[in-house]
Amino acid sequence: MDRPERHFEKEEERLKETLLRLGATVEGAIVDALRALMDGDPDLARKVLEHDVDIDQLELECDRICTDIIALYQPAARDLRFVIAVLKIAPELERIGDLATNIAERAIELSKEPQLRPLIDIPRMAALAREMLKESLDALVRLDADAARAVIAKDDGVDALMEQFFRVLLSYMLEDPHTITRALRLMMVAKYFERIGDGATNVCEMIVYLVEGRVIRHGGLHPADGGTE
After folding, report:
1. Residue ranges per domain, the chain?
2. What is the pLDDT of residue 227?
3. Which of 16, 94, 106, 187 lies at a C-alpha separation of 20 to 30 Å from 166?
4. Could you give the angle at the alpha carbon of 53 between the alpha carbons of 33 and 217, nearest 5°?
5. What is the DSSP letter of 202?
6. How many C-beta atoms surround the C-beta of residue 71 within 10 A?
7. Is the pLDDT of residue 21 over 70?
8. Mean pLDDT over residues 148-173, rounded?
9. Cα–Cα distance for residue pair 205/99, rounded to 1 Å
10. Average pLDDT, integer, range 98-125
11. How much is the pLDDT for 115?
12. pLDDT tens across 127-145, in order?
């Protein structure tokens, strides 16, 4: 193996490690944001906000490494697909990190008010959304397109939980206008978790593209083009 190929493999491995660090950091932010919400802990919520810069920096590092790989090694076929996939997955993970900060912001606001109702539905949504994100990252590590498709199939469950939660909160608002502000904030939290599920779905669509060369966005799980290696 010649020297340029060794350098390319090292850069590709560095890119994988950086992307997985980004994913792990985002997972941690979601866990802490949920804990801050459930415990009414504004200090923990503020830590989530402070650490958002770490997520941003990891996303930028992924972008820099991808740019260097393209400029220096001009990858083709599967290697090029990997770089393209990372260029799309890293910003998606960064956006999920932003959603964790949004949850933390609502946690700070809600910590100042009496709890509207037991937050049973929020942990259920959070658990499913976190499971989707974790399994999407596992599928990425294993380059497992079938596992990625299984994650995509779970997104309807998050949507259903959000709609159910919205109906409950709407009944609170109709019965007592004093609950409207708190209910709206909880609706926003539910929507953030629903969008985390959407983000995990987007990651999995890119995993299918990476593994199979198939673009399944917008067409569900029935791609129009087969792709090539």
Report:
1. 3-212
2. 44
3. 94
4. 75
5. H
6. 8
7. yes
8. 94
9. 20
10. 90
11. 82
12. 999 999 999 999 998 999 9
Say if residue 117's pLDDT is above 60. Answer: yes
The set of residues, in sequence order, having a beta carbon less than 8 Å from that of 108 and lying 6+ positions away, is 36, 42, 45, 46
Using one digit for the tens of pLDDT, what is the confidence trace for 61-86? 999 999 999 999 999 888 999 999 99
Length of the chain measured in residues: 229
Residue located via tokens 């972008």: 63
> Which DSSP string corresponds to 85-112?
HHHHHHHHHHHHHHHHHHHHHHHHHHTT
- pLDDT over 90 (residue 167): yes
| Structure-token match 């499913």, residue found | 128
- Dihedral angle, C-alpha 113, 160, 23, 80, nearest 10 °: -150
Handedness of CA 70, 71, 75, 76 (dihedral sign): positive
Measured N-to-C along each axis, helices 121-142 and 145-153 cross at an angle, to the nearest 10 degrees, of: 160
CA 193 to chain CA centroid, nearest Å = 9
214 φψ region: left (φ > 0), alpha (ψ -120 to 50), beta (else): beta
Q: Report whether CATH 1.10.150.20 matches the domain 3-212.
A: no
pTM of the model: 0.90
- Inter-residue contact 104 to 38 (CB < 8 Å): no
pLDDT reported for residue 224 = 43
Residue linked to tokens 């950086």: 18
- Give the whole-angstrom CA distance, residue 199 versus residue 145: 16
**Helices 42-50 + 52-73 axis angle, to 10:** 20
